[in-house]
Amino acid sequence: ELQYPPRLNCVAALFDGALAGGAAGQVAIRGEHLSWTYTQLQEQVDRIAHVLRGPLGLEAGNRVLLRGANNPMMAACILAVLKAGCIAVPTMPLLRARELGTIAAKAEINAVLCADGLRAEMEAVDLPAAVKEKTLWFGAADGGLEALMARQPASFDAVDTAADDVCLISFTSGTTGVPKGTMHFHRDVMAICDCFPRSVLGSQPGDIFIGTPPLAFTFGLGGLLLFPMRVGATAVLLEKLTPETLLQAIEKYRATVCFTAPTFYRQMAPLAGKYDIASLRKSVSAGEALPLATRESWRQATGLAMIDGIGATELLHIFISASGDQIRPGATGKPVPGYQACILDHDGNPVGPGVIGRLAVKGPTGCRYLADERQRDYVLNGWNLTGDAYEMDADGYFYYRSRTDDMIISAGYNIAGPEVEDALLRHPAVAECGVIGRADEERGQIVEAHVVLKPGHEASDAMTAQLQEFVKGQIAPYKYPRAIRYLTALPRTETGKLQRFKLRTE
Ligand code: 3UK
Predict the structure, then answer these.
(1) Does 389 lie in the same domain as 338?
(2) Who contacts 386 (Cβ-Cβ below 8 Å, separation ≥6)?
(3) What is d(CA 470, CA 427) in angstroms, rounded to the nearest whole number?
(4) Going by CA atoms, what residue is nearest to atom 3 of ligand 1?
(5) Does any ligand 1 atom lie closer than 6 A to the CB of residue 42?
(6) 347 and 411 co-located in one domain
(7) Co-location of 345 and 483 in the same domain
(8) ∠ CA 156-158-159 to the nearest 5 degrees?
(9) Can you give the pLDDT at residue 177?
(10) Are residues 90 and 163 in the same domain?
């Protein structure tokens, strides 16, 4: 059972812990152009906190929309908002003005801290005049936030917040369309730092964290900022990474822990041999299902057993995972110590091993939607229903099957798209694929695959027949894709998630 004092400011607690552990001179954040030790990061954070409470005139509990790519200044801004007793509302860098407007209105923001490089889109957002007056730009060649910081004291006393004051409003990335705001407390931030990274990763002060998820996505906020801070380790924050440049960066920065999505690992595997990435100890995959084929190709390329973990914005971070000899092929893992999980049937009753049902999770973090969102759809008797169809085995391992809404029902059979995707990915011509159910008069639905071929392979009827035969040889023949469409890329969110709804409406 995790216990935190009733008065808690998570950013103050993170710095106090790191500094007490001797991290003062250790690099906290390494960016493309600069790095800060823990002492230097704290000074930046403190100066920004002064700007927020002084010149910007914010009060405790005010909400600050944050916008920027992954870099040291964006990280410092997020930390400063929390340390100043305000609430961070981080937003994905690629969002457009209309989407930002919806988030700003839903979260009732009071101020904006935005990277100068994203200024044009931010200025196009329809905001109340009072908020426009409280907008500061950072990373500009002149003036902006940095000019104000220079005139502030170098040290700021953290605002004395309660452990269950809201400190973060995080928006879901909207695989279905409308983003939902979720609220998290100061103690939730500590809890995620004390669960997955402790028990599954075994993070240490010497670790160097690297990866792709935006800090505005809680996967990235935890993995690339909060987790390293909790143990006084180093976070490498880089913008615009590709599979190739991520491998280069792992080599260059001697990274030990990598956080990214399954597609990235899939694309990195064939290139990994070109780089010296022997420093890497842990590779964490989250955001969507990790196909066994991807796990195997990464293992072959690097010798590393990938750590799969399912997390959700509603629960802040990863709650089922496994590492080392606890990894079981095909399973996500077991509940992270601190969390409980079970499988429920349609009526909300628990089902035993071997039955597919709805995943339900309980733990130190949980879903609190902003205002009128669908809280009652997500939380049932204290259990969080993530919307995932899962199955448990007799040893308590949890196996992902599909999103609850994505289960394909064809001629009376239940078919999970990700299983068909895993089979297709084993074919040497297939780079990427997404499998959905397409309405069909005769069968209700048919299995339809959307395939991206590797360079050097052509879409043709012969290819379709070959892929269909291949799948029939891998899994029960009734699961084979009766229709195959070829694309040059799959529609994905900024967080790397396949947008199945877009495949369905194509
Ligand atoms: C799916 C997975 C299978 C699943 C997230 C790590 O993805 C994150 O949060 P989101 O709110 O989406 C949550 C949903 O994504 N999912 C995530 N991980 C896996 N499905 N295997 C996985 N390993 O449907 C879940 O309900 O965007 C991930 C940490 C923090 C996060 N917010």
Answers:
(1) yes
(2) 310, 312, 314, 315, 359, 360, 361, 378
(3) 7
(4) 289
(5) no
(6) no
(7) no
(8) 120
(9) 63
(10) yes
The answer, yes or no, to whether any atom of ligand 1 lies below 6 A from the CB of 400, is yes
Q: What is the pLDDT of residue 141?
A: 86
The first and second tokens of residue 20, run together, are 């007490």
Q: Is 401 in the pocket of ligand 1 (CB under 6 A)?
A: no
Regarding the beta carbon of 138 and ligand 1, being less than 6 Å apart is answered no
The amino acid that residue 72 corresponds to is P
Number of domains in the chain: 3
Name the closest-CA residue to atom 13, ligand 1: 312
Residue 191 belongs to some domain of the structure: no
Determine the average pLDDT of the residues in 161-176.
88
CA nearest ligand 1 atom 17, residue: 287
pLDDT category at 373 given cuts 50, 70, 90 is low
Among candidate residues 134, 157, 185, the one where a domain is terminated: 185
Q: Which residue has the tokens 């990435």?
A: 277
Q: How far apart are CA 157 and CA 389, in angstroms?
A: 46
Residue 218 CB–ligand 1 contact under 6 Å:
yes
Cβ-contact 190, 10 below 8 angstroms: yes
Residues 107-155: tens digit of each pLDDT? 999 999 999 999 999 999 999 999 999 999 999 988 899 999 999 999 9
Domain boundary among 143, 169, 185: 185
The tens digit of pLDDT for each residue in 16-31 reads 999 999 999 999 999 9
Pocket test for ligand 1, best of 321, 388, 421 (most atoms within 8 A of CB): 388
CA dist., res. 400 & res. 384, Å (int) = 16
Per-residue pLDDT for 175 more than 60? no
Verify that 360 and 414 share a domain, yes or no. Answer: no
Q: Give the range of the structural domain holding residue 456, as residue numbers without chain letter.
A: 407-504
Note whether 15 and 132 are same-domain residues: yes
Residues 154 and 20 in one domain: yes
Work out the mean pLDDT of the chain and round it to a whole number.
95
ipTM topping 0.90: yes
Quick one: which atom of ligand 1 is closest to the CA of 386?
Answer: 26
Instruction: State whether the beta carbon of 308 lies less than 6 angstroms from ligand 1.
Output: yes
Q: Is 421 in the pocket of ligand 1 (CB under 6 A)?
A: no
